Amino acid sequence: MSRILVTGATGFVGRAVGKALAQAGHHAIGLVRPPQGRSACAEEWLDASVDFGGLAQAVPQGAALDAVIHCAARVHVMAQAGSLAALDAFRATNVKGAVRVAELAHSLGARRMVFVSSIKAIAEAEPGRPLREDDSAHPQDAYGVSKREAELALAAFGRETGMEIVIVRPPLVYGPQVRANFLRLLDAVAKGWPLPLGAVRARRSLIYVDNLADALVHCAMDARAANLCFHVADSEDIEVAALVRALAAGLGRPARLVPVSPGLLRVAGRLSGKDAAVARLVGALRLDTSRIRATLGWRAPWTTEAGLAQTVRWYRAERGMGARRND
């Protein structure tokens, strides 16, 4: 039984990782902040420090680790996300904090760190084909910049110490307990709001949270993953309009899709100062996942259809909508 530390263990991804580790027979240790409720891990270490600055104080005497899966991150976009102050805040958590976690894990005997990065570390849109791990990095916001810098800093730490660093870049993650943009989309569909996405044909990669957790466990335990970077996603890419229709069907609501051309949407985005948000809706962003499939033999255990069904089922319960007859 391997002892694996999970940072951000009470978060959206971290909770799923703790559950996946337990199901695979490993001893998961959740690094949690007070007061954030229980994780799905067998053991918890309480870290009240800022940006992992006092992480050593959370470790019980005589503790040892085999690996760490680093899920914790600053993800919220602040009011001035493009400012230097915002970038400094992202760097403090996502770069310096990640290195501190690596240092502590290495001191406790961990042979490997799996770093949950983001496709935003290299791009916000694809170059006419699915993005590969070796594509040039051009992050567009403070979050993406910090994730890319963390990748480089951790790789350097690995070269210096011999610790194996595995980088995993997911696209948008969805599933029960999802927040941010995906939850807002669920709310809009549930309320029957018209959405100007009927003419958008670009496909985007997504990943169901339990698919991501499964991939992270493979990356933590499979010797073949050492010092590699992997793009992970569901097996199917999906058009935004098709995503809206699938959510609407699950919610028992009509899909109110208005056919507005992507070009006109981009113009509206520029005029409203929301060009980046519009670009994420109308632009293609597919990930090439052939490396993890060829190297580790990994396949997403959940289909996108099944993942969306689980997400909608949770949302209906969360909003008190009741279960559908065919659930």
TrEMBL record:
SUPFAM superfamilies assigned: NAD(P)-binding Rossmann-fold domains (SSF51735)
Leader peptide range in chain numbering: none
Domain NAD-dependent epimerase/dehydratase: 4-221
Coiled-coil annotated spans: none
Pfam families: Epimerase
InterPro entries: Epimerase_deHydtase, Lipid_A_modif_metabolic_enz, NAD(P)-bd_dom_sf
Classification via PANTHER family: BIFUNCTIONAL POLYMYXIN RESISTANCE PROTEIN ARNA, BLL5923 PROTEIN
Protein's name according to its UniProt entry: UDP-glucose 4-epimerase
Organism: Paraburkholderia lycopersici
